[in-house]
Amino acid sequence: MILGIDVGNTNTELAVLIGDEIPYSWRFVTKTPRTSDEYGVLIKSFFRNSEISVDKISSVIIASVVPNIMYSLINGIKKYIGVEPMVVGPGIKTGMPINTSDPSEVGADRIVDAVAAYSIYGGPLIVTDFGTATTFDYVTKEGAFAAAVTTPGIQISIDALWKNAAKLPNIEIKKPSSILARDTVTSMQAGLVYGYIGQVEYIIEQIKKETGVKDMKVVATGGYGRLFYQETKSINVYDPQLSLKGLKIIHDKNFR
């Protein structure tokens, strides 16, 4: 049994990966400082509340964009689960060439998403992840990671607005029924959500224009992916478990 761990800037997701199934998954906040013991106890507690034993874990694979927690996380896994985890990075087989000017700069999360999207949906395609940052990655027909766009996530945009404008409140991310707002909260929601939809559509359109590939599929994932998938025809598929599926695919490439 494989334990997949996706360490994001805001949340960390753990999941049991069995074949093509993901029967159990859990989340915890990434930014909370933890020791290796705390990580180990936390992971074991998730399993205690499920119907599956942590003792059945034979392999662990991690994709992380938060380097400063990795020492404690890895040691917690080794101490409490008894497994040396595989960490997605240099030297790990992914099956995907990284055709950028500096492949080492491409985050493990983007590689994992791209590998999963290409394996499941084929190429060429755009993979967009709505997380702490919103990313748009172009994968060629041949399966190469070829280009990337990075923008602030919508939550970052909201936080910047209310923290830097004294009279503006913190608001719920919600699309109002009309862009013609008549109060402060709705005006902020209209500007942020409608504006973000416009940004998403323009970036996707521009990638298609510059690559000359008009009919490529667009696959979305991430916490806010569902919202934008429902609000624009520019996104073809929403797959909330894309990164976990990618971890399983990469794991299998290294243990054939």
TrEMBL record:
ATP binds at D6, V7, G8, N9, T10, N11, T12, E13, T132. GO terms for molecular function: ATP binding; metal ion binding; pantothenate kinase activity. Pfam families: Pan_kinase. InterPro entries: ATPase_NBD (IPR043129), Type_III_PanK (IPR004619). The active site is at D109 (proton acceptor). It is found in: Cytoplasm. One of its GO terms (cellular component) is cytoplasm. A monovalent cation. Ammonium or potassium. K(+) binds at D129. Its EC number is 2.7.1.33. Keywords: ATP-binding, Coenzyme A biosynthesis, Cytoplasm, Kinase, Metal-binding, Nucleotide-binding, Potassium, Transferase. Its cofactor is K(+); NH4(+). It comes from the Bacteria. It catalyses: (R)-pantothenate + ATP = (R)-4'-phosphopantothenate + ADP + H(+). Substrate binds at G107, A108, D109, R110, T184. Pathway: Cofactor biosynthesis; coenzyme A biosynthesis; CoA from (R)-pantothenate: step 1/5. The keyword Ribosomal protein does not apply. One of its GO terms (biological process) is coenzyme A biosynthetic process. Homodimer. Belongs to the type III pantothenate kinase family. PANTHER family: TYPE III PANTOTHENATE KINASE. Catalyzes the phosphorylation of pantothenate (Pan), the first step in CoA biosynthesis. This is Type III pantothenate kinase.
